[in-house]
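Record type: monomer structure entry
Structure origin: computed from sequence
Chain ID: A
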Amino acid sequence: MPHALPSRLRRRFIVQAVVASLVLAIAVSIGSAVMLQALIDARLRAHTEGVWASLELNPDHVPAQTGEVRIHYVPAGAAIDSVPPELRRPPGSHAVDRFDRHVRVETRPQGSVYVDMTFSYAKQVVWTAAAMFATGGMLGLLLLSWLTYRATRRLVMPVTWLAGKVQGWNVEDPDAEPLDPQRSPGDVGSEVRQLSGALRDLSTRVRALVQRERDFTRDASHELRTPLTVIRVASDMLLADPDTPERSRRSLQRIQAAGRDMEAVIDAFLILARDADVQPQGEEFRVREVIGEEVERAQPLLAGKPVELRITGDADPVISAPPRVLGVMVGNLLSNACVFTEEGLIEVEVGEDRVTVRDTGIGMSPGTLQRVFDPFYRADQFRSGGKGMGLSIVRRLGERFGWPVTLDSAAGKGTVAEIRFSR
């Protein structure tokens, strides 16, 4: 889709901004916690050193008590009953509770000092500053990501525009005019200009190649009709001659069958060579009549085989299309059925909206069934009949006229081919 690249870019920038914001918040939280702990330790050490300095000057000094600082001094050998139980810790700095109170215990020869301090205000200041810094940093990251996304989106906009134009191309008739870089939104760089120029050159070459193929197919098909007509007329005359030996008649019948196959291929090529938006002239015809003609033509292919070829179904639909198209499609399906069925039944069922060809032939493996519509593909290279073009032509004609063709087959159980009509 043309907008897939901008969508991916937007998602990537959103994910990056969220991840960067989380990393920043975690880093600020860890940094603030480390800084706060260092500040608490420094304050406790400073007060403890101050108490020892005062005691060295005056051993009878009584430390002052404030709302945030409470100091307890226990001379050496004295009882510690005056020290609250929650402060009786080993030497060092300790948290008294989870939030505010911390105590530092130091022991010297003259006694022990317990410095009990409350840091609620300091914690409030540090965490408030950390929250403001993290919020500002995250907002800055989001703004930077948004500006970067806008700039990147403007850079990729010509590529997105070019992809949309190419997606709307008609493969068989690509128009290079809409690919002019001057029509592109955003900043067109040298890469986009080179890509646009290459695509415009490619479209010109594709149009020339498609037109050359159509011209060749049309001209070659018309030129081949003349010798085929001569072959068909000459073979008819020889077959009408009662003096023609039986062996020669069999050869002439094979020549006529090959000629009919070639005429069918030429008809298909002529139809497919026309532009897709120019529909061949059609007419209303009865499907059953066309099926009858193709069944009669296929009968010689079963000469000497214990195979019954019959038409079933009570429907007699009338559709509007070139009759020869349906004849070519059914003729190819019948030809395949006759070649690959050695005994049993070939049944052509006419329905209101479909024609079904069933046979009791050798069938196809799943691998063969996947490739059977490929041009020139033949599952059995050594079996006579066809060059691997029949089913490819059937499928292409079906796509051209909106008549989907389906195949169902199993090795050793036969094949079912179905043509559905668009009513």
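Annotation 1: The CA atoms of residues 118 and 239 lie 122 Å apart.
Annotation 2: The chain has three domains: 4-142, 171-278, 282-420.
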